[in-house]
Design a protein that fits this description.
Elements: E1 5-13, E2 25-34, E3 37-43, E4 57-67, E5 69-71, H1 83-90, H2 95-100, H3 105-114, H4 117-133, E6 136-142, H5 149-165, E7 169-177, H6 188-205, E8 211-214, H7 223-235, E9 239-244, H8 252-258, E10 263-266, H9 272-281, E11 284-287, H10 289-294, H11 303-308, E12 313-315, H12 329-338, H13 344-350, H14 353-358, E13 376-379, H15 386-389, E14 396-401, E15 404-406
Parallel strand pairs: 1-4, 5-6, 6-7, 7-8, 8-9, 9-10, 10-11, 11-12
Antiparallel strand pairs: 1-2, 2-3, 4-13, 13-14, 14-15
This protein binds N-(iminomethyl)-L-glutamic acid and fe (iii) ion (FE).
Length: 408
């Protein structure tokens, strides 16, 4: 066999649902990489012969290899911070009060309109580096802090450039319908028309988005407005997803499901009918424990119903300056278990196989499967549950991206 690289003295959590057993685990395993892809995975004792003198062999000292982690919901290109609002909330104001008073998302919009691409790129690069050190190899980044054409395009261009210059792969999502900009505060339908007729065509013309998202909520866009934007996106051939049922039950998830959305995200207020709808459409449920934690929410997402209806659960950071200023996918694994009572295996599925599905990339990434991209991490742990259990001493030893060993 001629391979580019072989890993031995490792255990592998393949996260491939077709591999029997918890985590799709193969103890005392080996992985071979060729042309940036997984060429072979299985028990070390079955590893075919290869030219040991011509092939780099990496020894994992008995650690675990998992797929590279995927953070499928972030807003990580933004300028400024909202520590002042954090203080206001500690003095009694709610997230909704601050948004209604013209702060919240709009304060970050002002900061982003005033920031240049170089500044946004550098901020984004530092944040991607933080995620990369935790074994993240694919990130979704949304716009939504521009709310005018020039700034939305600027944010998406920066996101695309980050993907080109960093080993992390970036998927981009146009979230022009994130909040109502001050220019349209008395004409929300007019803004929705503008998103559909001006911004979206400009985004598409530059090839800047893989997907379109909307914030469907009583402080943002109603069901009818959401439907108009998602329909326009779908007609343009873009994937769709939705911020749905975060603060109230608006019926956004059922709408998104009827349009074939890849995921509905937050969903603390989702009811059984909504869970049934997303299970029938194959839509993923993206749970965002960082926002739940940081906003001190008390309404838990309907985890038991999601399990009962076999909805793929995704875990993401929602990293953003307002509701989840936490740039750590590993911490989300812990919070998914402590706050939402997921099992460590469900949490890891949520940042690997299911996260790939939410991005429409399950044929390329998300599990250690022959033919998929060689994106994986070596962890200094004895059991995969340790990834969700402890936090603070980063056990990430090595990252391989597209078959290249990355210097962290
Ligand atoms: O996913 N819910 C809407 N958007 C973000 C928050 C954005 C912000 O507060 O800046 C979220 O939580
Ligand atoms: Fe979000």
């Amino acid at each position: 066999m001629v391979w580019d690289q072989v890993w031995i003295d490792v255990n592998v959590a393949t996260m491939d649902p077709s591999v029997h057993g918890a985590y799709g685990a193969i103890p005392q395993a080996a992985i071979a990489v060729k042309d940036g892809k997984i060429a072979w995975v299985g028990p070390r004792s079955d590893l075919p012969e290869f030219d040991v003198l011509a092939t780099p062999v990496y020894r994992g000292k008995g650690g675990w290899i998992t797929p590279g982690l995927i953070d499928a919901h972030t807003h990580l290109v933004f300028a400024g911070n909202r520590a002042n609002e954090f203080e206001q909330r500690l003095q009694g104001a709610s997230y909704q009060d601050i948004a209604r008073a013209g702060g919240g998302i709009i304060s970050t919009v002002n900061a982003c309109r005033n920031a240049d691409e170089a500044e946004l790129f550098e901020l984004g690069r530092q944040r991607l580096n933080a995620l990369a050190r935790e074994g993240v190899t694919t990130v979704e980044i949304k716009s939504g802090y521009g709310l005018n054409t020039a700034t939305e395009l600027k944010l998406l261009r920066v996101a695309r450039e980050l993907g080109e210059h960093h080993h992390i792969d970036v998927c981009t999502t146009f979230l022009g319908a994130h909040a109502i900009p001050p220019e349209y505060k008395d004409d929300v339908d007019g803004y929705v028309d503008f998103v559909i007729n001006d911004m979206l065509p400009a985004v598409i013309a530059e090839g800047l988005a893989d997907a379109v998202d909307v914030f469907c909520e009583n402080i943002a866009f109603n069901l009818e407005q959401t439907e108009r934007v998602l329909n326009a996106a779908k007609q343009s051939g873009l994937q769709i997803k939705l911020h749905a049922e975060q603060l109230s039950n608006m019926g956004g998830s059922a709408l998104a499901a009827s349009l074939g959305a890849k995921s509905v995200d937050h969903i603390e207020f989702l009811d059984e009918a909504g869970v049934k709808a997303i299970s029938e459409s194959g839509t993923c449920a993206t749970l965002l424990p960082g926002a739940f934690y940081f906003l001190r929410e008390t309404q838990l997402p309907p985890i038991d119903l999601l399990r009962q209806y076999k909805v793929p659960m995704v875990i993401a950071s929602d990293f953003n300056p307002g509701s989840s200023p936490i740039c750590s996918t590993l911490l989300m694994l812990n919070m998914a278990c402590t706050l939402f009572r997921l099992t460590p295996e469900e949490a890891l599925q949520g940042v690997t196989f299911n996260a790939a599905k939410a991005l429409g990339l399950e044929h390329r990434i998300g599990s250690i499967t022959v033919g998929k991209q060689a994106d994986f991490c070596l962890w200094d742990i004895n059991t995969p549950a340790q990834l969700a259990y402890a936090y603070g001493v980063n056990p990430c030893q090595n990252v391989v991206k597209n078959g290249q060993v990355v210097a962290l």
